[in-house]
Amino acid sequence: MAVRLDHGEEGWTEISEINVTPFIDVILVLLIIFMIAAPLATVDVSVDLPAANAEKAQRPDKPLFLTLRQDLSLALGNDDVPRAALASALDRATAGDKQQRVFLRADKTVAYGELMIVMNDLRSAGYLHIALVGLEAAPVTP
């Protein structure tokens, strides 16, 4: 807000400067809203992934994630799936396309044997294209 406190003989004069304070206030409020809403927009299963320093591969438009949690429960996308119904849930999610790649995520505290059991279950269901998912790590230099 701009006010001229001039006690001259001219009286009140019009100030032609743009007041940007309300504009900045609106921008800051929008920034805060987006900072809060952005993490909520990505629905994800909570899993602590191990890090890998491999080159980043191109991600498909609609990836199919199978998650093995710390308590050894499975989630297909964001839905919990019992182990006995894994094959039928995969068939429903892929519309029977067994050539579709399944991205397998596992908590880093899960034993290697448990991960292999899930991979064998995928193979028994006919899904042979499996990609392991990990966090990106800085490349190691010798």
Task: List the defining traits of the structure above.
single chain, 142 residues, alpha/beta, Nucleotidyltransferase, domain 5, five-stranded mixed sheet, two-stranded parallel sheet, 3 helices, 7 strands, 30% helix, elongated
Compile the SSE list and pairings.
Elements: H1 21-41, E1 51-52, E2 64-68, E3 74-76, E4 79-81, H2 86-94, E5 102-106, H3 112-124, E6 130-132, E7 135-136
Parallel strand pairs: 1-7, 2-5, 5-6
Antiparallel strand pairs: 2-3, 3-4
Q: For the record, give the distance between the C-alpha atoms at the N and C termini, rounded to a whole number.
A: 60 Å
Say what the CATH topology of the domain at 51-136 is.
Nucleotidyltransferase, domain 5
Q: Can you name the CATH architecture of the domain at 51-136?
A: 2-Layer Sandwich
What helical percentage do the residues reach?
25-40%
Output mean pLDDT. Answer: 82
Low-confidence stretches: none
Q: Please provide the ordered H/E string of secondary-structure elements.
A: HEEEEHEHEE
Question: Describe it for me?
Answer:
With 142 residues, the chain is α/β, with parallel strands linked by helices. The protein has a domain at 51-136: 2-Layer Sandwich (Nucleotidyltransferase, domain 5). The chain has three helices and seven strands; from the N terminus they run αββββαβαββ. A five-stranded mixed beta sheet has the order 4-3-2-5-6, with helices on one face. The protein has a two-stranded parallel sheet with strand order 1-7. The longest helix has 21 residues, at 21-41.
